[in-house]
Amino acid sequence: MDLGIAGRKALVCGASAGLGLACARALVAEGVHVVLAARTEGPLRLAASDLAVQGAGKVDWVAADVTTAEGRARIFAAHADFDILVTNASGPPAGDFRDWSREDWIAAVDANMLAPIELIKATVDGMMARGFGRIVNLTSSAVKSPLEILGLSNGARAGLTGFVAGLARSVVARGVTINNLLPGTFDTARLASNQAAQARREGISTEEFRARRLAKHPARRFGQPDELGKTCAFLCSVHAGYINGQNVLIDGGSFPGVF
Questions:
Q1: Is there a contact between 141 and 255 (Cβ–Cβ < 8 Å)?
Q2: Contact (CB, 8 A) for 257 and 22
Q3: pTM score over 0.90
Q4: Are 184 and 249 in contact (CB under 8 A)?
Q5: What pLDDT is stored for residue 198 in this prediction?
Q6: Residue range 44-68, pLDDT digits in tens
Q7: Are the beta carbons of 140 and 190 closer than 8 angstroms?
Q8: Helix, strand or coil, per DSSP, at residue 160
Q9: Exposure of 146 by Cβ count < 10 A (0-12 exposed, 13-18 middle, 19+ buried)?
Q10: Could you give all domains of the chain from N- to C-terminal order, each with its CATH number?
Q11: Rounded CA gap, 70 and 23, in Å?
Q12: Tens digit of pLDDT for each residue in 167-198?
């Protein structure tokens, strides 16, 4: 299927690895001019180099921390007029809410709620003026099925979800859609690191912990990043113009509810 977005320009955040990189890869394959953003220059430069030889689209990169005004300004000083925005940030650490300070909460809200809102604010009016825009926020399946130990993530991402629910209805008539993509467990370096930490807390090997998790998973496997990346690319396509204000859960059926 031709997604109809060749030649469009996209900003993909957290794009040096994992799910952000998978989204960038899927967009570049469709001929999109993708600007990769992440904090660390080395992995970002390497990711851009790899993508440039893999897909049909142009690839640029900007090393910047999008949770800061300075970082966002650096991106928009180098590039403007984005047709597609993919926001993405690593989730805050797990733990017991009794141990979290006000500063912990502010950091979580900055990264997982306020930074995406600032990026949307910087791009959505231009998208409406040009009559086309796609905004996809990578959040978490925990928005739909909260976990106690992920309280920082639950709270911050739920705030972004509520904001999007209001804004999305006001922009779609001008050709702009805003949706959230909710990943479950995907086979990334971050998942491996989290599982190793949880295994140490439980006093078992990482392999045993992983096997226990897989045994409880309906799909008996974790998701592959490219599965999410291609879903993201579809939400950015011309074919998804009537999908708006939605929370698209991609978790292999882990969520047990009907809705």
A1: yes
A2: no
A3: yes
A4: yes
A5: 82
A6: 999 999 999 987 899 999 999 999 9
A7: no
A8: helix
A9: middle
A10: 9-186+224-249 (3.40.50.720), 189-222 (no CATH)
A11: 24
A12: 999 999 999 999 999 999 998 887 787 788 78
